[in-house]
Amino acid sequence: MPCATIADRGNGSSRAGTGDAHAPDRRRALLLATLGLLQLPPRARELRLLHHWLDSWTGIGLIVVGMERHGFRVGLRNIAVDNDGWIAEFQSDPRLSASGFAAAPAPWTAVQRAAWLALTACATSKISQVGPAAKVDHPVRAIALAPSGGLLADAVGVELSNRGFEIIDTQQMTALLVRLNADETELLRPQSIEALRSRGIDAVLSVRAASSPDGRPQSASARLNSTHTGRVISGVTWQNGWGGRAGSMADRTMRKDLTEAAREIADALSPTLQR
Predict the structure, then answer these.
(1) pLDDT digits (tens, 9 = 90+) for 121-142
(2) For the chain, which terminal residue's Cβ has fewer other Cβ atoms within 10 angstroms, N or C?
(3) CA separation for the pair 271, 90 (Å, rounded)
């Protein structure tokens, strides 16, 4: 059963929750219904009329505009291979893989199928490397957390500690910066990283995160800077999953909590580090 179908069950409200990234809900529901009807064989007169209207370049434009309202960008290209000569894909983030992908003989069919998949498919959390990172030519044993990272930085610190790294947490770093007569904006300046390295700290982890109204992380970036070179030695961006209406069963199932997000980020950061 598509995630959108699961998410819409048991919710009679016509308005989405404030955390729904695909609002406004009424437009999304109309677009979803139209795309769903386009997946059916056009046997009924009404379906033939719908296809007559939208199986065209004008129809492609209408669907693309509708998808853009919900944060998706389209890619459409003619590959002229076999019978599936057109490929369409919709992405909510150009750095991540496509949420909906389809190939078909006609461009409008490819667009209709890809848009339908993008709106109905469950999306798991996604993570990608930020690079290219500098080569790590020294061991990384002690990692300091930049103070502004908040709860997610602390959680990532716990996960890295579980993997054998020594962690200087945000409170310890705040106190250390006071002793150094510096603030966080000066953390990566040569004088500051030299002072950190002299105290046995090998890298500084900076985390930035955006949260949903329910407190779960929505997106995040994490960057490790070497105190030996000042360069980025590991970095990732992370995006939480989604599954329809905010707060729905599908949405709660697909979206990760703070601990799960921290575990995925730590898993992505640590393989490039020497110990």
Answers:
(1) 666 777 888 765 667 888 999 9
(2) N
(3) 31
Please list the residue range(s) of the chain that carry CATH number 3.30.2120: 3-120
Neighbour count for residue 166 (Cβ, 10 Å)? 14
Identify the residue whose tokens are 């000066």.
186
Q: Pairing mode, if any, of strands 232-239 and 217-226?
A: antiparallel
CB 243 within 8 A of CB 123: yes
CA distance 205 to 159: 13
168 and 144 Cβ atoms separated by less than 8 Å: yes
| Residue type at position 60 | I
**How far, CA to CA in Å, does 127 sit from each of 55, 92, 232?**
36, 14, 17
> Hey, what CATH topology would domain 126-272 get?
Rossmann fold (3.40.50)
Q: Which fold has domain 3-120?
A: Bacillus phage protein (3.30.2120)
Question: What type of residue sits at position 204?
Answer: V
The reply to whether the predicted model has a pTM over 0.85 is: no
pLDDT tens-digit profile of 231-267? 999 999 998 876 655 665 556 667 889 999 999 999 9
